[in-house]
Design brief:
two-stranded antiparallel sheet; 430 residues; 10-stranded mixed β-sheet; 15 helices; alpha/beta; 14% strand; globular
């Protein structure tokens, strides 16, 4: 089958669905067993779904290198036999393509056997860790409230000992955002981490404490959410250390994405793309949704067992969802000097009312007809343009980093490595 796409399609698969052995206090995914409307009590991907996924995902790619991403919940709740079967299916359907695998885990179930399997099969492991023990254990706990930091540190030791490539994904919250240098030093100096991603937590709660879906109105900001001003300070403080000593040695996703945009390359992360819809997610039962943060019934695209992946990826619903990111920006964004870097960031964080109405062609007049907000579709939009909750923090970061990014972009265009800025700053401080 010939792929109709010109760029790779990226799909995140949930082999264990929302099942997890932890109960992180801020987790946006923990209630998905209730909201996804599963037809059975099991959250384990069947062999039938696995084969349909592997076959159609490879066929949909227009490139010779295919990346499979296994996510959760906790994907290590599946056995090694499941992933061995996935690898066998990848070999069967590869058709000459090179296939890579990455897996995001909380690390608490890792073992020497798992690490040998990942090493032998070239898996890239994403490890969820929020910082030193006192910070990590504030929210990343077991269902009984037990801390998990010791288990995660053991996971780091095992991954290193077995030579498994890994990177860290840290949720930035109301606690670790207050100590940016301690946070950064922990990953760089204590763990020896070279690849680091930040995920700022922004959630709202209703009166009962339920996390609201991104498109549900109202609610109160959850106490564990990062403050917008603190988010900006957090980024700028770490950036000042990174740009003077760690460029080319420590790879921080948001800094790399910002630099990519400055030099005219894709940012490499969906949150800073002009449109959405490039990263749908597949649940364990084969249901495909527009995005991991929008895995609600109204954003369901179909099921991989009865609808071709290519058809779902080219569907009007997904294209509408993607265009909404660009077409619903408020005037503050449209008039911002850093629109080309931010593009309003992730739509899930656009929760601040602006009072600016959407164009009549964009807004639906019958929003009230959707009795269950979780059934809202991309075409059932709010009646006004919404501002990103983190806007002030992002604006502070983009303004602060701009002079340095211009220097690195100039170095890049002259054929020099961006890391040359470190020597430049010794003689030409900004």
């Amino acid at each position: 089958m010939h792929s109709p796409f010109t760029t790779p399609i990226y799909l995140m698969a949930k082999p264990a669905g929302p099942a997890c052995n932890l109960a992180c206090r801020y987790c946006y995914y923990i209630d998905k067993k209730k909201t996804l409307g599963h037809r059975s009590s099991s959250t384990m991907m069947s062999r039938q779904v696995l084969e349909a996924y592997v076959k159609s995902y490879i066929e949909a790619q227009p490139v010779d290198r295919v990346m499979f991403t296994w996510h959760g919940g906790e994907p290590l709740l599946r056995s090694r036999e499941f992933y061995e079967e996935a690898l066998a299916l990848q070999r069967r359907y590869a058709g000459g393509r090179h296939v890579d695998n990455s897996l995001q885990t909380n690390g608490t179930l890792l073992s020497d056997e798992w690490c040998r399997f990942f090493r032998d099969n070239g898996f890239l492991i994403g490890l969820s860790i929020d910082g030193r023990a006192a910070v990590h254990d504030r929210y990343r706990l077991t269902a009984t409230g037990a801390p998990t930091s010791d288990s995660v540190l053991r996971a780091v030791e095992m991954l290193d000992r077995h030579g498994v490539e890994w990177n860290a994904m840290a949720v930035v919250n109301d606690v670790n955002s207050r100590d940016p240098l301690g946070f950064y030093s922990f990953f760089r100096d204590t763990l020896g981490c070279r690849y680091l991603q930040f995920a700022p937590i922004v959630e709202r709660l209703d009166g009962s404490g339920r996390q609201l879906a991104p498109f549900e109105p109202g609610g109160e900001i959850a106490p564990y959410s990062v403050d917008p001003i603190e988010w900006g300070r957090f980024l700028n403080t770490i950036f000042d250390t990174w740009v003077c000593r760690d460029v080319g040695e420590m790879f921080v996703q948001i800094f790399d994405s910002t630099l990519a945009s400055w030099v005219g390359l894709p940012p490499g992360t969906c949150v800073f793309g002009e449109t959405c819809g490039h990263s749908p997610v597949m649940e364990h039962n084969g249901d495909l949704y527009t995005c991991d943060h929008f895995a609600y019934p109204g954003h369901r695209l179909g099921n991989i067992l009865d609808t071709p992946l290519i058809a779902m990826a080219m569907s009007h619903r997904l294209r509408t969802f993607g265009a909404d990111k660009r077409d619903s920006l408020p005037s503050r964004c449209l008039n911002c000097d850093y629109l080309h870097l931010c593009h309003g960031e992730c739509p899930k964080n656009r929760i601040i009312p602006t009072g600016e109405p959407l164009a009549e062609s964009q807004a639906r007049s019958d929003n009230s007809s959707v009795s269950d907000p979780l059934l809202a579709t991309p075409a059932t939009r709010q009646s006004e343009r919404m501002l990103n909750y983190l806007c002030d923090g992002y604006h502070a970061y983009f303004a602060h980093s701009a002079p340095y990014m211009r220097v690195m972009a100039d170095l890049y265009h002259r054929g020099l490595p961006p890391s040359a800025i470190m020597d430049h700053l010794k003689h030409n401080p900004i």
